[in-house]
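Listing S7. Sequence submitted for prediction.
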Amino acid sequence: MRKTRKAAAVLTAVAMAAVSAAPVMADEIKDLYDYELQTREIETWNILQSQQSTDMNVLTNLYDGLVEADEYGKLTPAIAESWETEDNGLTWTFHLRKGVKWVDQNGNEKGEVTAQDFLTSLEWVLNFHKNDAANTSMPMEMIAGAEDYYNMTNEMDADAALALTAESPEFADTVGIKAVDDYTLQYTCLSEKPYFDTVAAYNCLYPISQGMLDEIGVDGFKAATPENIWYNGCYTCTEYIQQNTKTLTKNPLYWDTDAKLFDSVTIKMVESVDTAYQLYTTGELDRVDLSESNLMTIYNNESDPYHDQLVEKRPTKKSNQFHFNYDKLNDDQTEDTNWNTAIANEAFRKCWYYGLDLGSWYKRTNAINPYKCYNNSYTMQGLIYTSDGTEYTELVQEKLGLPSYDGETMTRLDSAKFEEYKAQAIEELTAEGVTFPIHARYFVASGNQTALDSANVLKQAFSDSFGDDFIVLDIDSYVSSVSKEVYNLKRQSFAIAGWGADYGDPQNYLGQETDDSDNAYYMVQLGHAVDSESDELKDLYSQFTELVNKADTITDDMDARYEAYAEAEAFMLDHALIVPAYFDISWELTRINDYSKINAMFGIQNNKYKNWETSTDAYTAEDYAAFLETWNENASK
């Protein structure tokens, strides 16, 4: 059975029977207290530089782009009041609302947002010496002349490149963007991009003001601070104490005067979720995610004051997978031949797909309903739908011959197939000189006890599923940077990583694994299949890339486009080039109605503190059942 847009949520034993109307609540919260882990401190205040969700969860509240989304994931106007394409996505025109203000940290007016600000920002993004190649991939792949300008600045003297502006002929005569007038912005794409309006939800197309750059200089914006940037979003950051707090204050000149905003939002940096839990119990936070131990302590004690307030969170907007390293190196940078030979073998990879039971590991994320975390797609559920309301990953599951998600099992597990592929892999790999057991190296952050505990549960899952004579999980650690200490040196056998969509099309997911682009993030950063010694493996990736590229050429029939992408994704999964890992669906205590939040499956806006429904009293499972029912009713309209 295919899913429709109606949420596929299964209410748990904790949730009461849904009621027909939302319950009467206490007063709404005026000043919100939220939290973030200290390991997730913001790295940059430059909206164009950031590529980390930890930054953008804050920055999305300080800047607005052309579009945003509502609580049902529908693309809605922001700075652009309307937009259209008259040539099937080759040219896009956005009509900007008048009177959108730039303000300083204290809410004082600095200027008006105009179409020229979007040219200024795109020049910054594409100027190698200004933005250091951050956020360039989508503009370069989609906007006419963008890659040419990037390459031009890359080859220029740094001082000459830094002196360029959007009005310089090098940019104005090269890149497919123009300000028709102060309130009309036009992009010209390299080819038909029927989804280009969804790209505008990502920060690579957000505006900045030339007036700000004139005031603080290029170096000032490179090292942006809350004190020197100009804001056009819901809030300004009026206080920032690193590793301690961030205080966001309502923007008094915000364009959306109908929006429901908090007077202030205080984000406290905490050492751990357990610390956050203690702050929640003393009334110092308005929500808290629950660790496995805290969750089960409350869940198993019906007299616990928080028992009836346990609510299951909505899934995060990422699909997480096991990403194999096909060109693993040892610590001395010699080739790990044993692993590389094994992982290039399809029968060996299919043992992971059909045999690795992750039920115990899922409990680390959701101890009550672990199999709701089960993932068997590469693309995140809910990203896009066909014209009849079919959710895209259902197309993938049908092509794989798997039943729909039921929240209770891992539908891909098949003991008979596992044993068949295990025997085949042992026979084939032994003939190639591979020795058993095969050791799979997995890294966690040093000192992160939660991550280590989860890794040990995963290690036991390997042992139970594979047998210690076949595959053994070796847990290792890095000190501060997994990229610098592990991935760049190719030391890992696999990584568990997730992708959240930048824009609303399957290309943004599947394009990360193709073998023909330097912008294929997972291929370049984690997979390295192009460097494998296996011709068979490289041929599979070539076939996969051909399927992805073929799908991308279909622009006049979106249903046919999605069917073609589903074929490519099913090919990837059928050959176990990656193995889906999990969805993040955990539990919380909260005074915030999550179903009132922005629910965008792409872009940077899901943590925007805008139009949130709240209560000074904590919500209960019964309340959340009503919220879900109402959301389902409205989402299906």
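Caption to Listing S7: primary sequence and predicted structure tokens for the chain studied. Confidence is low (pLDDT under 50) at residues 1-23. The longest helix spans residues 449-466.
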